[in-house]
Specification:
Strand content: 15-25%
Structural class: alpha/beta
Number of strands: 10
Oligomer: single chain
Order of helices and strands: HEHEHEHHHEHEHEEEEHEH
Radius of gyration: 19 Å
Helix content: 25-40%
Length: 271
Amino acid sequence: MKINGKEESNLILSELKEKRENCKDEIKLKIITFKNDVSNTSYIKIKKNFGEALNIICDIHYLDENKNSKELRKEINKICKEKFVKGVIIQLPIPNHLNKNILINTIPDKLDIDCLTYKNLGRFYQGKENIIPPTVSALDYLIKKYNLKLDNVLLVGQGELIGKPIAQYLINKHIKFININHTSNSNIDKLCQMSDTIITGVGLPNLIKFDSIKNDSIIFDYGCTKQDKICGDCEIDKDFENKCDFFTPVPNGLGPIVVAKLFENLFKNIL
């Protein structure tokens, strides 16, 4: 079974439109990125289009990466204080020479719909959250909607946006799993053969081989790499749909659902 992320996203959008009708005030979302960063243009466009479908004003702010973290922190603080601002996100990655933690934690908790500040992440890791990271929320949404039972899970990647928060989610749900860093493990094919569920999000095309997965396995592919076309971590042009019991393709898989869950967090903070 292959899910259609766009259709799932539109279902969430319909629910959020009902919530938007209950908010009579103007709503603004601030998307912060950097002048020299062109790789995130498509991601920003997707978020902007989704927001505008909800009658949310999405302003894009381009920061100068040649400024230091202290100067940029002042700019972000000013953006956060604008009238009607209900959400602020910093499009990752942040240039390496800047202090990512300083910049992200400039965002007030109530405006941090990506759930990346120390306080919001701390609440999530303690199981006391109001919102959870959109990547985790998308996974939880699909598990509940399709009544999936995750067994014998292989989690590939240990990154800040996918690997770490999903590992915590699995711990909170008492789901047994193995978490590997793809760069330091040469046995990934063998581990795939042993796993009933694979969750991957490292941005390496052809990492998960078609011949290495079990029949009727469950695969969540968060990978997103631009080559001749957009592709995930699963082997390109292979028929994962018919081999898997449940499969999220790339594109049009988890990505649109993650964006929808980002805006769901915005409304959770408002209502």
